[in-house]
Structure formats: structure tokens, C-alpha cells
Amino acid sequence: MSRTLSLLAAIALITTARAQDTYYPPTVGTTWDTIDPASLGWCTDELPALLDFLESSNSKAFIVLKDGRIVIEEYFGTFTADSSWYWASAGKSLTAFLVGIAQHQGQLDIDEPSSTYLGEGWTSCTPEQEAAITIRNQLTMTTGLDDSSGQFECTDPECLTYLTDPGTRWSYYNAPYTLLDGVLTGATGQNLNSYIFTNLTAATGISGLFVQVEYNNVFFSKARSMARFGLLAMDQGNWNGTPILTDTDYFTAMTTSSQALNPAYGYLWWLNGQESYLLPGVELQLPGPLMPDAPLDAYSAMGKNGQIINVSPSTGLVVVRMGNLPDGLFVPNVYNNEIWQYLNAVICTATAVPSIASVAAAVSPNPTIGPVRLADAPEHGPVELLSSDGRVTALTVRNGTLDLGSYTPGLYTIRYANLEGRIRSERILLVGPGR
């Protein structure tokens, strides 16, 4: 505990010192100060490899800010600085920010039942079960609603049924999150776009629109608005000396572990540097940080197909990526970590936790028809099996061996923590009849 407090105190001191030299672009227009990466001592000869990786993985926009100034800004294909793109689930972090503003304004309390603003009967639970679900549960993915039907987006009451008591299970369930939009509109009396314009656009220049796509409200903006939001988050909700999210306790809770079930999740933000994490669809604690090659203090907004905002106060970095689904294997934190690997080479000094590294695993045989042996794996430890379409399956090693014979042939990635606590990762080709 004392080590954690010391780390937080050190980050706070670094953030305070940096805030005095942080640049904020004007709220109107396209002016934005830039800085040459070479002047920062960065290894610019490594930049082409980073940009090639981004282009080959279907990126549309990539921005890196250092203390608010643009160090890298690249657009790919026909995409330009004036093009708009969707945030997908990265918009969850924006919603959490808006909830914090509404609470400070006295329009809601996150410990109130969600039904206060959604009305009774927004689920198919009993009145007692429904009344136990709070706005905080929606923010932390701990509503206890049943996500086993596969109706992940459906917000109709018949789709929202009781599974367990709120706060006892973490599950990345989109539908209860989506209904936070209803909480905000019910509490503030404004629609989402009006509320953003009033509370963010005028003061920070963050612009964009929520657009309803089936059950979801999806935020669309230019890449620079993503970068503006990251800069606002890096300065703990302040913009050029003006508090935008003035509830510092809420901001701290939003960007630190919100519950013990998944330490790597705050209020709709993903957190690096925790001892373990859960991923969507995986009810198994995976050891180590979410992104071993990213800064320890980074918190991230991450969405479908690699919509990413990374914020690291200790390094003064904001990293934005917009684009389509990368080719091959895609799991958001794995792809994000790959970006950091290339970016670390450009920065020259690794930003990651030095005691934990991602190294090639010895997996044999490869290719395989089923059984594989994992080098120095715990005899009965957890393993991530990542398929090429982005699905994650939690498995358990049995005497250092996995049997993949029941899985469909194809390319997979196996990730696990070895006996020394290092994260090992290797792609493997599964051949044979499969299922």
C-alpha cells in the first residue's frame, strides 16, 4: 500500500510540474503547436517502422502529443485531419467524464439507483433487484445483469435479466453501459450532443456528435478531438487552468481501480500497471499489466477495431489511433501494446515497467494438430488463446500442456505468465480436422 501511495504521490508531483509547461491549442481553428521529435532526443530513424506498422494494420489517423504539442501526426489513405471517424467503445470513457460533470453539478449521484433516471422497469428484474443497481455499477461493469444470451447490445427490458447481485461480478456488458446515456439525459434534461457542446466544446474545442447506431449511441469526431480529450484527461480534467471536471475525487476514482473484480478497470477507462486484469468475455484473472510495454500509469480509452486514446501523465504523452480492424489477430490491449513497442523504439527509452517483458514463447510443436507444450509455464496456470477474429478463450495449462485439438484450424496466439512472472506470447498454427 505504501508503495502505491508513493507512486501516486510521485505521479502527482510530476503532473503538477508538467502542467505549468503544458500547451493547449486554441479552442477555435486549426492552430496547434508542434515539436520536432529530434529536438526531444527521439530516434527518428525508427519512425518509418512505426508508420509502416500503422499503415499495414489499417490505421487512418495517428497522433502523439508530448506535453500538449504534436510530435507525430499522420493520416493514411484518403483520411485527412478533416475526416471524422467513430470512437466505438472509446466513447465509454467520454461518457464517464460527462457523468462526473453531471454529478459535480448536482444533477445526479452515482450511488443512486439507475431507475431514478431510467424509470422503474428498465430491466426484467424484480423491483428489489433493479433498485439495487446503481449508476456506479453501470460505470464499473458490475450491474450483475445476465450477458449469456448473446444480446450484448439490446437495451430492451426483456434483454436485461438478473444473474447475480450488483457488485459481485465484472462483465464487459455493453447494454447497461449504453443506458448511461439515458441516465445523463434524464438527469440533465439535455440530449448528449447538447450536453457536450455546453460543457466541453466551448471550453476545450472538443467537437463531435453522438449518432444512434441500432441500440448504441456512437461518438464520431476528427482525430484531433480525440487528442484534445486525451490532453484534458492528462491534466486531470483541467484545460489551460480552467477546471472542466472539478470533482477531483471522481476523476481519481475514474482513473484508478474501481473494484477488486477487475483491477485494470476504472469508470469506463482501462488501466495499465495493475497486478492482473480481465478482458471482455474472459472470466479469468490474467496476471501482469494490461500492456507490458506501455507506461505504468497509462489509462486508456479503447474501442472496437482499435480506436484508442492512451494517456500517461508521468511521461506527458497522449497517443491516439483511429482506423479499421487490423489484419490478422486483433485483441485491443494486444494491438495497443504493439503500438507501444514501436513507439518506444522511436522514443529511444522504453516507457514500460522494466521488470515485466513480453518475450517469445517456446511453444512446440508448431504447427500442431492439437497438443502443445508451453515452456516454463506453471503446471496449472491460466492461458489466453487469441483467435484471428479477435475472440479470446481462457484456458488452463495441465502439466505444462494444452490440447487444442477441438478448435478450428487456423492461426492463434497463446499468451501466459511464466514461472518468473514474464508475459510470454507466440503465434501458433493449428492444423487438422478441428471441430
Task: Give a quick rundown of the structure.
It contains 12 helices and 21 strands. It has 435 residues and is α+β, with helices and mostly antiparallel strands.
Report on the structure:
- It contains twelve helices and 21 strands.
- Mean pLDDT is 88; it is low at 1-17 and 353-361.
- The strands form six sheets. A six-stranded antiparallel beta sheet has the order 2-1-13-12-11-8, sandwiched between helices. Strands 14-21-20-17-18 form a five-stranded mixed beta sheet, with no helix packed on it.
- By secondary structure, the chain is an alpha+beta fold.
- β12 and β13 (317-323) form a beta hairpin.
How does the SSE layout of this entry go?
Blueprint: H1 2-19, H2 47-56, E1 59-66, E2 69-75, E3 84-86, H3 91-104, H4 115-118, H5 127-131, H6 135-140, H7 174-178, H8 180-188, H9 192-204, E4 209-213, E5 216-222, H10 223-234, E6 238-239, E7 242-243, H11 248-254, E8 270-271, E9 276-277, E10 286-287, E11 299-303, E12 307-312, E13 317-323, H12 332-347, E14 358-360, E15 363-364, E16 371-374, E17 382-387, E18 392-396, E19 401-403, E20 410-417, E21 423-430
Parallel strand pairs: 14-21
Antiparallel strand pairs: 1-2, 1-13, 3-5, 4-5, 6-7, 8-11, 9-10, 11-12, 12-13, 15-16, 16-19, 17-18, 17-20, 20-21
Helix pairs in contact: 2-12, 3-8
Task: Name a few traits of the molecule.
six-stranded antiparallel sheet, 435 residues, disordered N terminus, Beta-lactamase, 21 strands, five-stranded mixed sheet, alpha+beta, Immunoglobulin-like, 2 domains
